[in-house]
Write a structure and sequence with these properties.
Chain A: Pfam families: BPD_transp_2. Chain A: One of its GO terms (cellular component) is plasma membrane. Chain A: It is a multi-pass membrane protein. The complex is a heterotrimer of chains A (351), B (403) and C (427). With 351 residues, chain A is mainly α. Chain A has helices at residues 12-43, 48-78, 85-102, 111-141, 151-171, 198-220, 222-232, 234-239, 244-270, 277-292, 297-317, 323-337; strands spanning 176-177, 187-191, 194-197, 272-273. In chain A, a hairpin with a 2-residue loop joins strand 2 (187-191) and strand 3 (194-197). Chain B contains 16 helices and five strands. Chain B is globular and about 60 Å long. The chains are: A mainly alpha (351), B mainly alpha (403), C alpha/beta (427). Chains B and C meet through helix 4, helix 12, helix 13, helix 14 and helix 15 of B and helix 1, helix 3, helix 4 and helix 6 of C.
Chain lengths: 351, 403, 427
């Protein structure tokens, strides 16, 4: 887009490439919703089914977005694919579920205890997951700062195995049900025939404020500035008097807190948790982060939402055994048309 | 061993003569030491305590197959610097070469009489497609080379870790296809893959002039795996020291500079994917025949991570390091954890089920090894020099080795 | 409960920090099946029974129950079969790296058993795909095999649902060594369909977990439903890692389904599916599952299973009798298991593990000599054996002749025997 505004203009072949890049991407993104809109209109005469897919996609995608931000933040600052991040999200879910049990909240609890209980659970899960993430950085990544770039990748994998085992011992090998505190699948309102459930509202209502707070924090605060500076050039940042170690720790803290929040929402929204959820969730969130352009916060959110939409449409119409393949096929297509992700910036490495 | 000997003549001794750490002079690295090691490896099955244990021989053969695979991935990640998180795709193609062309899977072809080509013995009477194993190896190489190029194409414009996610995506898509294409039938009603049922049994290796390999005696399998390792090592050294090998390293170190100096980026990258993939295919085909099954459960993301861990743990780009990394991780996974660590509480008279913390033990070992030897067990000299240079000039608290 | 887990976790951390520390101190006293192996037998042999099961990952819940059941059976027998002393060794056919069974581990286990002179019986595998790997090895070595869990048709017969060349291609020497104590898929499928018809289902939405057990069972449920005239609206393979199945359930509702049946195991996200389908299909819809979900972790809300509100909608089929019809030693097993593992109601897989070990001991005893060939012969000659699964024989294919399935309802988070269903196997 930027290139197109340069007056002299690039050669014709370049311009065609540019056009393919821009419109090809749009076409790729729209192909599923448009196709399903057409089939819906011809089959049912309305767009209710697509609408429901999109609502479900939005609320599911919001959870992925929260996890994806953790990936993107960490990647932006230390250029590490933090494979253990998904497990932090899982631990967040486990902390919340245990807390819900400890506080004695059940399906029959009335509104006030549930509300305050969830607030407490949210805070504890965020603090717990954030602290854990900082500890992991200390133990598994910091000793490897001067090692080859890929070495921390393996310690991250090792860490993720250890955390999975902790989850396994904690809650056993089966999925665990969590009390359906909010009556998640209760229809709250119906708009144009599209039902909106309690769970959808919860997911969006917690995610959006968190996202706004976080982006504002990173864009405005002193620490946020330090983070961005370190991400751009750690050496220069250090020379400017920024404490790189603290900044990195803070980044892991924030990423972990968001994963913890996502963990709580996931537990209450899905009402089922599993020691393996972090592995899948992490893979999806990582995909979301890359799809949006790794290192870019808004990109991570956009990527999360797009994946949420794709997943729900595919589950509902194509068959859920193909869903992961379709998500990944989308990713490859997006990468072909936009090699640095949807809102990709130039990172040091990818620059 | 003649292989190694010819290497000595062709490669001049290391001109720098700089001995740093584990770096050996050229003649030792490529001649004497490997020769001795390989000779010992070839003679091990004659020790009755080892050779008579079929499960041990099989695990050693599996470990050697992993060596082949790790050497393949090392070309892509270590030499060319393209982080590949979907290497399992090549394993899958290699294995399916056996599943499709050397088993009774396509039972309906040729009026249920089967197609046979250069096979003898039992296989002649079975339905399905049965090609000689050497031919299957060629098919596996062709299949994986093509797959490697196809997977490489979309990553050409990408840099850094974007390559990682696209290869990961391909690995996952191939894994999904292996699971889900058990519903799509071809060639008279056989599904393309057998999904999680697995294509089983598959033909055993049947080499010209030798007796067919058997189920219970794993020694021939081990020697065949060793032979594959020798061939692959030879090819690996030749590739590394060739024009192409230098082009890979140049691209890895600085793509812009390399392209400016006339290194053809597209061709060089695709060659890295293709040759790395071919090794994966060879190993995949061998493993399928050895383990007598091609099961979609095998082709998961965690396998890509395992092979990558072998490469990084051994020392990125270092051929001997990668060999050691593959062997160490195989031993941990198939011997140390199940046979030694899981027995410890029992030996101590405790009733503690170690299998419930196997995940953590494995993760902890990975973590420990990486922290103790961040640059790998046997780092590549070039990487090592870089690290040393950086450490002198910059603050080692910072992210020095990132480039 | 939680404090125990915390202790375990703390212990794990300690173990990691200091190598393998003594973590078992506060656990229950030693229970292993190998208890009686030290003393040499008067004239009998020292024999080993191996089991090969995936002890890592999603199947762990069931395999742990299997191993516990098997250990208890051996303990009941005093570590003896006739005058032979039996040692039990539980092998793992999964690796931490894969988190599920791997062909290399399964075939290494089979080879280990094949070359061990003392091997008497091989219990396994858990996954049918794994049995395809171990059967040829064990058949060649003449080691008798009892699977406590395989239901895939083609391992023993060429009945509908099998593939060309099965089962002969697994026995290259023609020597049949493989037996199993759970009925093949066809029988359970027929039982489930009969049950659903009885309960007045007209249109049934089905999901399967895409694994050998689940997908195979789903395939024969389709056949059986056609035969018995029950309409299936769908047979969706699910992704076990999906976070929910609400869209899928909506699809079933749109197709007019009034019942739901899941063909798979608990660990493949069964609870979430039952919740989502119950929410979509309404409070009157019947929800059905096979023995893969017949366990505490699925039916009990406090153990993380389905919510109590769904209890009355759910029914599962299991190849076990009503507990009060168990033979005396089965009754004893019941009380002992409860005592030792603190579960009120042993999961079916504990019962399967128990019965597999029982049958192995029985066959060794009947063989007299303790030679593999004689044990195998005795195994295939099993006739009218009274067991916790009912009275059965082993036929010439190695299959059990059981056809009765128990239909279980759920009450207060526990499986409750409802009725016996006589299923007719086709083919």
């Amino acid at each position: 887009m930027e290139a197109a505004s340069i007056p002299a203009g690039p050669p014709a072949s370049q311009r065609i490439k540019q056009l393919i890049g821009t419109y090809g991407l749009t076409a790729v993104l729209l192909i599923m919703p448009v196709w399903f809109a057409i089939t819906d209109l011809s089959d049912d005469g309305n767009l209710v089914r697509l609408g429901e897919n999109l609502v479900a996609g939005l609320s599911n995608g919001a959870i992925w977005a929260l996890v994806a931000i953790g990936y993107t933040l960490v990647y932006g600052i230390v250029e590490l694919i933090n494979f253990a991040h998904g497990e932090i999200f899982m631990i967040g879910s486990f902390i919340s579920a245990s807390l819900i049990g400890t506080l004695g909240l059940t399906v029959d609890s009335s509104f006030l205890p549930v509300f305050f209980g969830l607030v407490v659970a949210l805070v504890v899960a965020m603090v717990g997951a954030g602290t854990l993430n900082v500890l992991i950085e200390r133990v598994a990544y910091r000793p490897l700062r001067s090692a080859p770039k890929l070495a921390p990748l393996i310690t991250a994998v090792g860490m993720s195995f250890i955390l999975q085992n902790v989850g396994l011992l904690w809650k056993g090998g089966n999925q665990q049900g969590v009390p359906d505190l909010l009556d998640a699948q209760h229809t709250l309102v119906t708009i144009f025939g599209v039902t909106i459930e309690n769970a959808d509202v919860l997911s969006v209502a917690v995610t959006i404020p968190l996202l706004i707070v976080m982006t504002t924090f990173i864009n405005r605060s002193r620490l946020g500035k330090a983070m961005r500076a370190t991400a751009q050039d750690p050496e220069a940042a250090r020379l400017m008097g920024i404490n790189v170690d603290t900044t990195i720790s803070m980044t892991f803290l924030i990423g972990g807190m968001l994963a913890g929040a996502a963990g709580l929402i996931y537990a209450v929204y899905q009402t089922t948790i599993w020691f393996f959820q972090g592995f899948t969730g992490g893979l999806i969130a990582f995909t979301a982060a890359v799809m949006g352009g790794i290192g870019n916060l808004r990109g991570a959110v956009l990527g999360g939402l797009i994946i949420g939409f794709i997943q729900q449409m595919s589950d509902n119409r194509i068959g859920s055994q193909w869903t992961p393949a379709i998500v990944f096929a989308y990713l490859v297509l997006i990468m072909v048309f936009k090699p640095s992700g949807l809102l990709g910036e130039q990172t040091r490495d990818a620059g | 061993m003649s292989v190694a000997a010819s290497e000595v003549e062709q490669t001049p001794p290391d001109p720098t003569g700089k001995k740093s750490g584990f770096q050996l002079p050229g003649w030792a690295e490529k001649g004497v030491i490997p020769g001795v090691v390989l000779l010992i490896a070839a003679l091990i099955p004659f020790i009755p305590a080892i050779g008579d244990k079929a499960n041990l021989m099989q695990q050693m053969a599996v470990a050697l197959a992993y060596v082949v695979m790790a050497l393949g991935l090392n070309i892509i990640v270590g030499f060319a610097g393209l982080l590949d998180l979907g290497y399992v795709a090549f394993f899958a193609f290699g294995a399916f070469a056996v599943g499709w062309f050397a088993s009774g899977h396509f039972a309906y072809v040729n009026d249920e009489k089967g197609i046979h080509f250069l096979v003898g013995g039992n296989a002649l009477n079975l339905p399905g497609i049965h090609f000689n194993f050497l031919l299957v190896l060629v098919i596996a190489i062709v299949l994986t080379t093509i797959a490697g190029m196809i997977i490489g194409l979309p990553t050409l414009r990408l840099r850094g870790d974007y390559i990682a996610i696209v290869t990961l995506a391909f690995g996952e898509i191939i894994g999904r296809l292996a699971v889900n294409l058990d519903g799509t039938t071809i060639l008279g009603g056989t599904p393309i893959t057998a999904g999680r049922q697995g294509i089983s049994p598959v033909d055993r290796i049947d080499l010209p002039f030798l007796d067919p390999f058997t189920v219970l005696d794993k020694k021939p399998w081990y020697w065949f795996a060793l032979f594959l390792v020798v061939v692959v090592l030879f090819v690996n050294f030749r590739l590394r020291d060739s024009r192409m090998g230098r082009a890979w390293v140049a691209l890895r170190e600085d793509e812009i500079a390399a392209v400016a100096m006339g290194v053809p980026a597209v061709k060089t990258k695709l060659m890295a994917y293709a040759s790395g993939a071919a090794f994966g295919g060879i190993s995949g085909a061998f493993l399928a025949s050895l383990l007598n099954t091609v099961n979609a459960d095998q082709f998961q993301f965690s396998f890509s991570i395992l092979v990558l861990a072998m490469v990084i743990l051994g020392g990125l780009g270092s051929i001997w390091g990668v060999v050691i990394g593959a062997i160490v991780l195989s031993i941990i996974n198939n011997y140390l954890i199940p046979d030694v660590i899981n027995g410890v509480p029992g030996d101590l008279g405790l009733d503690f089920d170690m299998t419930q913390i196997t995940f953590a033990v494995y993760g902890f070992l990975l973590l420990l090894m990486m922290i103790l030897r961040p640059q790998g067990l046997l780092p590549e000299r070039r990487h090592k020099m870089e690290l040393a240079d950086h450490a002198e000039t910059t603050d080692d608290n910072l992210y020095t080795a990132r480039a | 409960m939680r404090s125990k887990y915390m202790a375990a976790t703390g212990c794990l951390v300690a173990a990691l920090a200091m190598g393998v520390a003594a973590c078992g101190d506060e656990d229950e006293p030693t229970t292993g099946g190998g208890g009686g192996t030290e003393e040499p037998a008067a004239e009998g042999k020292n024999l080993t029974i191996y089991s090969s099961l995936p002890l890592q990952g999603a199947s762990r819940v069931q395999t742990e129950a299997l191993v516990n059941g098997a250990k208890l059976a051996l303990e009941q027998a005093g570590g003896k079969a006739g005058n032979h002393t039996i040692k039990y060794e539980s092998l793992d056919d999964s690796t931490a790296q894969a988190g599920s069974w791997t062909p290399e581990a399964e075939s290494a286990n089979a080879l280990k058993a094949a070359q061990d002179e003392a091997t008497a019986v091989y219990l396994g595998a858990f996954n049918s795909g794994a049995s395809k790997v171990s059967i040829p090895i064990l058949s060649e070595a003449g080691v008798p095999q009892i699977s406590p869990a395989n239901t895939y048709v083609g391992l023993t017969t060429n009945d509908p649902g099998s593939e060309p060349g099965e089962p002969d291609k697994y026995y290259p020497t023609g020597d049949r060594t493989y037996t199993r104590i759970v009925p093949k898929d066809t029988i359970q499928a027929a039982a489930l369909v009969t049950l659903m018809k009885q309960d007045g289902c007209t249109k049934v939405a089905m999901t399967n977990d895409k694994e050998v057990y689940g997908a195979g069972l789903a395939r024969v449920i389709e056949l059986s439903a056609k035969e018995q005239g029950l309409e299936l609206t769908s047979n969706d393979a699910i992704d076990k890692n999906a976070s929910n199945y609400r869209s899928l359930a909506q699809k079933a509702k749109a197709a007019g389904a009034d019942c739901f049946v899941y063909s798979g195991i608990t660990a493949n996200n069964a609870v979430q599916q039952f919740k989502d389908f119950a929410a979509a299909l309404g409070a009157d819809a019947g929800l059905y599952g096979p023995d893969g979900v017949a366990e505490t972790g699925f039916v009990s809300e406090k153990d993380g299973g389905i919510p109590a509100a769904l209890n009355k909608q759910v029914k599962v089929t299991v190849a076990t009798l009503s507990p009060d019809q168990y033979p005396p030693e089965g009754q004893e097993f019941f009380t002992q298991f409860t005592e030792k593992y603190g579960v009120d109601n042993p999961d079916p897989y504990a019962i399967y593990g128990y019965e597999a070990m029982k049958l192995a001991i029985d066959a060794i005893e009947r063989s007299g000599t303790g030679e593999k060939a004689d044990i195998k012969k005795a195994l295939f000659e099993t006739k009218d054996r009274a067991s916790v699964l009912g009275t059965y024989s082993i036929d010439e294919n190695g299959d059990t002749t059981l056809t009765d399935y128990g239909a279980y309802g759920v009450e207060n988070g526990e499986l409750k025997f409802d009725q016996t269903i006589k299923a007719q196997a086709q083919g």
